[in-house]
Amino acid sequence: MTLDEFPVGLAMDVSYPEFRVSLTLLSTTRLRFEIGEGPFARTEEVDTHVVPLGNGLFAVSWQEQSGATVTNVQDYDRGLVHSSATLPDGRFLRMTGTCVVTRPADRTSDERPHRNKALVTDAMTSLFQRHDASSVDRLYAENYIQHNPGIPQGRDALRVLVEGLSPDVRYEPGLVIAEGAFVAIHGRIHGWAEKPQVVVDLFRIEHGRLAEHWDVLQDEALPDSVMGGVSMFDPEERARKV
Q1: Of the chain's two ends, which shows fewer C-beta atoms within 10 Å, N or C?
Q2: Chain-centroid distance, C-alpha 76
């Protein structure tokens, strides 16, 4: 993640518990804020310092004409701004506010699909290649929803399933497609059934963890030369850039 991905031009309303502020990201070095009501009410343009933190996070800091200093951690994936401010009278404030975009950035940059593809690949290989049940807590949301009727609901049930997997179970990841909060991965799993199965798993990602899952499985069949001889699954498809 680089400074080039900072959403220059974006305007947003941030609602803190005590007041609301409108922010406009004029450039990577300049910001305008407007507080319409309350003891902090004013409009000002300030010089800023921006540091990309990764995963849709940026640290933005500035000093105001009054001498107040502010640091925002702007989390665009979750729609949150974590703010720390030292006021001229020495008071220190910590606040977290929700943000609503009122004008999009001049150039759209969304790293979620890339990160989410890596997350899903990590989950599928950790559980069904390495049989690492300890990775469930790291990768799956606490309220994980399972749409496969043959697997009980929840993260605890998934952990038990992985702990009981036969050593013969082995997963091969293939093509991965991501858009927004959703990832689909095409793969082949051995040892789950009598024959190898080709499976498409669909995940919804929430707050950096797997929150919901659907899948479709089919027994693998050998290519039919009469029908064209194309295999159902090819491990090389994983290298395709989508």
Answers
A1: C
A2: 10
Contact predicate 52/119, CB 8 Å: no
Angle of CA points 198, 233, 180, to nearest 5°: 75
Secondary-structure percent of the chain, ordered helix, strand, coil, rounded to 5: 15, 45, 35
Helices (H), 83-154: 112-128, 135-139
- Pairwise CA distance, residues 129 & 147, whole Å: 22
Decide: 211 and 116 in contact? Cβ < 8 Å: no
The pLDDT tens digits of the residues spanning 130-174 come to: 999 999 999 999 999 999 888 889 999 999 999 998 898 899 899
Q: Which domains does the chain have, with CATH numbers?
A: 3-103 (2.40.128.20), 112-239 (3.10.450.50)
Pairing of strands 57-63, 30-35: unpaired
Q: How confident is the model at residue 206 (pLDDT cuts 50, 70, 90)?
A: confident
